[in-house]
Design a protein that fits this description.
10-stranded mixed β-sheet; about 35% helix
Length: about 375
Amino acid sequence: MSIKKTAAVALVAALGVTCLAACGTDEGGSAAGKTDRPAPKTVTLVSHDSFNASKEVLADFTKQTGFTVKILKSGDAGEAVNKEILTKGSPQGDVFFGVDNTLLSRALDNGIFVPYEAKGLDRVPAAYQLDKEHRVTPIDSGDICVNYDKKYFADKKLAPPVTFDDLAKPAYKDLLVVENPERSSPGLGFLLGTAAKYGDDGWQDYWTKLKANGVKTVDSWELAYNQEFSGSAGGKQAKGDRPLVVSYASSPPVEVLYGEPQPKVAPTGVSTGTCFRQTEFAGLLNGAKNPEGGKALIDFLISKKFQEDMPLQMFVNPVAKDAALPELFTKHGVVIDKPETMAPEKIAEKRDPWIQQWSSLVLK
């Protein structure tokens, strides 16, 4: 989900969607769960830059609980996590939202969260619950996948790629743009997807083939999708010439929603055999001034009301079993039945050395 951040949370930021944001601290108690003063009426949610929620939904939380939500945006997902690590025990807020499975071990190992088993967690499949101690609660999921420009492939009378293997074939030479995994969440997810597919010792050979096949690397999703990719609205304006890009399975519905005029069919497609599953979590911060408000907010984040609001706010999928997807997703989105996945413990062990190896292989 940064795309966050997850399904296509970065798309929201790139398209200029706004949300409530504030910073600062509140009067209140001390460590999470250890306050002898009345809980403040404001609960502060710290998040990556792509968090968004309907004003009506946040107002409903206030009506239910008496707490007003203050949102503090703190950069992309990696930057936001690092800030919380640096302020451990004296956090910027009460709840952190937006740490995903690629960065989860870093957050847990540094002790920035305290355990809390959310009410309603039984509605979330066990596959999403990656921390048995409930230091974090799964909130949404999404798939990082290669997207393709439908018009380009139709004009060339060339079938778009479907799998990782396809991307290394001569037919797709000089067509793919990816993000640097050291700087970009979707870039890291795509690297992990190739490692999950080809194994610890096989992904390097795969990337050697991609490099020989003309893969282009840029630093961010924004540059890749809205500058280099010929299929996006931004890419068309920028005269991007790469018809393949690492983005999200939820990107096509975004192109429909924000198209001017709105197209009846998504102009982009998804290479369904190139996907890596991301899950985003929220957790009660160690040292939160309003732990009770934080717990109530985490409960609300997995409520049916919030879960059904998320898809059109952050372009991610709900994790609660009783939450329905909007028609835009069911009509124009793609369901990834068998995404690549990887255990957080393995990501923790391999992430940094793999990024170093990738840099040596691809950037030199």
